[in-house]
Each structure stands twice: as structure tokens, then as C-alpha cells.
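Q: Structure for this?
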Amino acid sequence: MPKKKFDRNALTSFFLRSGLAIVFFYAGIASLISPQNWIGFIPQFVQNNFPASVLLILFSVYEILLGLWLLSDKKIFYASLVSSVTMFFIIISNIFIFDVVFRDIAILFMAISLIIFSGKKK
Amino acid sequence: MAVQFITTLLVLGLLGVIDTTYLIRKSREKKPFVCPIGEDCNKVLDSKWNKIFFVKNDILGLLFYVGIIVGAILLLLEFNETILKILTIGSGIGVLFSGFLVFIQARVIKNYCFYCLISALINVLIFLNLLLL
């Protein structure tokens, strides 16, 4: 029986999805465990209009669900689109602490790569 | 105790649960596995080595990862040296067992299962993570 082919595309998608999911899992779980370390990332104008602690819990759950969606490998085009928009808003809303969020640009670009990659598969 | 390392332990436990749940679900569906590394995952999963200690390895793995998550939550609620020791010894056994299964894949079955290798990697990371706590 011929040896099965090394599937470069499936592996690329797997690592992109896993990388993004791990980031969302860590952020989601860490902000549930130590909200005091993460509440500062919620922009002031949002904190002025909504209770920050409730918002943080909701956002943590959202991040964990997004991670699960990415790993589910279902409708990845939309999952990566949502991930990109999420990362974009995280960067923009924390642009004044750029020394902290500059690494998020790499994650945003990973998500954008996944949009392009999964769009191609259709 | 570093809370970050309990968080990473929870993340690793969750990844393990997802990995083993995927393996269990796929084998229940009885559909062939897609193995991205170009090996025949089915040869590994259909082999007699997939059932050791009277339970399928994927179910054993799932129980192990659920145990890690429960242990991590207990550590978070109240840090306890005994729980940490149990988790460290348990995960050490997990690493040895994973090493044995990787050896079996390499030398006996002569095929690799991608998701089993991922599980072995998660086990090593869990063990290292526990050593850092």
C-alpha cells in the first residue's frame, strides 16, 4: 500500500488554529482566575458605561468559546474572521500600552493568514 | 505558587480533553482518520496496543486530563502539597506511558498517529508545568 501523503495544508491549518486557540484559552482562563491583572485592558470609555467585572467575565467566556470554535475545524473562515476582528479591537483599544500589545500584531496576522488560507479551501 | 502555571496547567488539561474527545468521537463514528503527517493513524488506533489496562487509551487519556483539570482547580482553591505530589507523580506515569506508546508506534506498528503524538507532547508539557509549580 502506498504511503499516505504528508498534508502540508492540514498541518499549517492545525498549527495556526491551535496557536490562536491556545492564546484565547490562556487569556480567557487567566482573566477568570486573576481578573485584577486583566481588568486594566478594558478601555476606560467601556468601563464608564458597563460594569467592568461582568464585562471581563463575558469576554473570558467569549475567548474560550472562540478557542473551541477554532479547534473544532468547522467554518474556519468565519472563526478566523472573528478572531482577527477581536485581535484588531484588542490592539486598537490598548494602543497606548503598545509595549504590551505589540506582540498581538503577530497574533492578528496569524488570524488573517488563517482567513486567507481557509477561504482558499472553499 | 505561581498562578500563571496553574493557568497553563488548565489550558494544557483543556487541550488534552479536546484531543482525546476528538479521538473518541472519531473512533465511535468509525470513519477513517485524516492524518496530516502522512502516516496511517488508523493502523495505530486499530491495533491491539490501543487497549491497555482493559480500557482504550483515548478514554484513559480523557480521564487523566479531567483529573489534571480537577487537580488544578483544587490547587487554585487551596494550594496543597499532597495534591501537587499526586498530580506530579500521576503525570510522571503519564509521560512514561506516552513514551512507551510512542516507542510502540515507532518500532512495533511502524506508523504514527498524529493526535497520539500531540497527546504525548501535552503530557510532557503537563509534567514540566507541574515541576515548575
